[in-house]
Design a protein that fits this description.
The protein is globular, with a radius of gyration of 24 Å. Strand 12 and strand 13 form a beta hairpin. The protein is α/β, with parallel strands linked by helices and 455 residues long. Helix 1 packs across helix 15. Its EC number is 1.18.1.2. Its cofactor is FAD. This is ferredoxin--NADP(+) reductase.
Length: 455
C-alpha cells in the first residue's frame, strides 16, 4: 500500500519550519499519499532563534511566530521537543524511520575573536548574554552586571541588541516576556556608559535601519556619534548608492553626529574606525580595551594607522558572529562552521552526496542574513530533496510507520514534548503574565517547561 514521503527535520526554528512549509506546498504533498513530517527540537519548545535569539523588546520580530504557527498546525506535521540529536537519536536512527533528513540546527555559540585578553573575567560572548536574557533553559540564571562602563565589539544587529539591553532600565523591559530572574538581574545593572566599536565606517555597518533607530526611542538612552567618525571613501559612496539600507543607516548616524548631546541618564556611544587590539586586564579581570584607529583605503575597507587608544571599561562583550555546533556523523567545514553542501545536499569529503541527507539555514550557509532569508534556503533544499525522491535516489527506511518513532524514543527513555504540549506551555506562560498585565512571562527551567507541556 502506498505511504507518504517521510521526512525528518532536525531543528524546529524558522529554517526548519520553512523547510516543512516548502514540503507541504509541493506537488508531492498535494498528491495522494502526500508527505509526513516530523520535527525534532532540542528545546522543549519550538521556534528556535525567535524564542532564544531575538531580544525581548522586539515583539515585531517575535510576531513571525504567528506565521510559523500556521505551518505547525498542519496535520501532516508532528513536533518532538526535548529530543537532542547526537544523544537521544543518531543519523542511523533517523534513516531507519525516514526517507530523508533535513538538518536546520542553526547557530548558538560565539565566533572566536583572537586578541590578547579575551579570556579575562569580564570578557563575554554576546551569544551567552543573549541566552541569559532570553531565558534559555541551558544557561545559568544569573549574570554579573557590575560594570559601569561597558564595551560591545561589533556593528551588527546582535551588537545593537546587547548594547540596548545593557543601556535600558529593567523596568523598561518589564512589559516584555522576560522571566523574573532576568528582570531582577537587570535591576542590579550598573552600566551608565555603553560603547559600541566597529573597525570600519558608517557605510559598512551591518545594522538594520529600523533596529538602529530603535536605540533612540528609549527615554533613558542618549545615543552619541562622534562627527569625526562620519567619513566615506569612493568604495563607501558606492556602497550607499547601491544599497538602500546602508544609505539609511549612514543618514541616521549622520543626523546623530550633528545634534547636541542631551541629558538622558545612560549614554550609548557608537564608535567607528576603531579596531579592537587587546582587552586590558589586572588580576585576571578586565580593566580596559585598547583599539587601533583605522582609516579607509579607498575601497570601503580599512587599514591600521598605528595609533592606539585605551578605553576605560570593565566589561567587554564580543558580538562578532555566531558559530554552529558540529553535528555527529556529518561532514564539517571548520573554517566556516557549516556542513558542506551543494544546493542543500550534504557533500562528503569524497565529493559524493551523503544519501538522503540535507541542510538548510545557518548550519548550511553560516549565521548571516535576516530570519526571512532562510526561506530561500529552504525552498532550494526541498526542491533538491524532491528531485532525489522523484528519481529514486532516497534510501528506503526499514521502519517508516509513524508509531515506530514514538516506540523508539520511549525505548530510549526520552521524555518528549508535542505540538499539543506547546499549546499548554503557551497558555501557562500567558497565565503567568496576565496578573501583571503582560502578554506572557517566559518559563525558563527545562523541568518546568516539560511539566507545563504535559510531557
Amino acid at each position: 500500500m502506498p505511504r507518504p514521503l517521510r521526512v525528518a527535520i532536525v531543528g524546529a526554528g524558522p529554517a526548519g519550519i520553512y523547510a516543512a512549509d516548502a514540503l507541504l506546498k509541493s506537488e508531492v504533498a498535494a498528491a495522494d499519499p502526500g508527505v509526513s513530517i516530523d520535527l525534532f527540537e532540542r528545546m522543549p519548545a519550538p521556534f528556535g532563534l525567535i524564542r532564544y535569539g531575538v531580544a525581548p523588546d522586539h515583539p515585531r520580530i517575535k510576531g513571525i511566530i504567528t506565521a510559523l504557527h500556521q505551518v505547525l498546525d498542519k496535520p501532516q506535521i508532528r513536533l518532538f521537543g526535548n529530543v537532542d540529536y547526537g544523544n537521544d537519536l543518531s543519523l542511523d536512527d533517523l534513516r531507519t524511520h525516514y526517507d530523508a533528513v533535513i538538518f536546520s540546527t542553526g547557530a548558538t555559540a560565539d565566533r572566536a575573536l583572537d586578541i590578547p585578553g579575551i579570556e579575562l573575567e569580564g570578557s563575554y560572548g554576546a551569544a551567552d548574554f543573549v541566552s541569559w536574557y532570553d531565558g534559555h533553559p541551558d544557561w545559568p540564571r544569573t549574570w554579573s552586571l557590575e560594570a559601569e562602563k561597558v564595551a560591545v565589539l561589533g556593528v551588527g544587529n546582535v551588537a545593537l541588541d546587547v548594547a540596548r539591553i545593557l543601556a535600558k532600565t529593567a523596568d523598561e523591559l518589564l512589559p516584555t516576556e522576560i522571566p523574573p530572574n532576568v528582570h531582577e538581574g537587570l535591576k542590579a545593572n550598573k552600566a551608565l556608559e555603553v560603547h559600541v566599536f566597529g573597525r570600519r565606517g558608517p557605510a559598512q555597518a551591518k545594522f538594520s535601519p529600523m533596529e538602529l533607530r530603535e536605540l533612540d526611542h528609549s527615554p533613558n538612552i542618549e545615543v552619541i556619534v562622534d562627527p569625526e567618525d562620519i567619513d566615506y571613501d569612493e568604495g563607501s559612496i558606492e556602497t550607499r548608492r547601491g544599497n538602500k539600507q546602508a544609505d539609511m543607516v549612514a543618514k541616521t548616524l549622520e543626523n546623530w553626529a550633528i545634534r547636541d548631546t542631551g541629558d538622558r541618564p545612560h549614554k550609548l556611544f557608537l564608535h567607528f574606525f576603531e579596531s579592537p587590539a587587546e582587552i586590558l586586564g589586572e588580576d585576571g579581570k578586565v580593566v580596559g580595551l585598547r583599539t587601533e584607529r583605522t582609516t579607509l583605503d579607498g575601497t570601503g575597507n580599512v587599514k591600521g594607522t598605528g595609533e592606539f587608544k585605551d578605553w576605560d571599561v570593565t566589561a567587554v562583550y564580543r558580538a562578532v558572529g555566531y558559530l554552529s555546533d558540529e553535528l555527529p556523523k556529518l561532514p564539517w567545514d571548520v573554517a566556516s562552521g557549516t556542513v558542506p553542501d551543494e544546493g542543500g545536499r550534504v557533500i562528503e569529503e569524497s565529493g559524493e552526496h551523503l544519501d538522503s541527507t540535507y541542510v538548510t539555514g545557518w548550519i548550511r550557509r553560516g549565521p548571516v542574513g535576516l530570519i526571512g532569508h532562510t526561506k530561500g534556503d529552504a525552498n532550494e533544499t526541498v526542491a533538491n530533496l524532491l528531485d532525489d525522491y522523484a528519481h529514486g535516489r532516497l534510501q528506503t527506511p526499514a521502519s517508516p510507520e509513524p508509531e515506530a518513532v514514538e516506540a523508539f524514543l520511549a525505548s530510549r527513555g526520552v521524555r518528549w514534548t508535542t505540538w499539543e504540549g506547546w499549546y499548554k506551555l503557551d497558555a501557562a506562560e500567558k497565565a503567568l503574565g496576565e496578573p501583571q498585565g503582560r502578554e506572557r512571562v517566559k518559563i525558563v527551567e527545562r523541568e518546568d517547561m516539560l511539566r507545563a507541556s504535559g510531557a
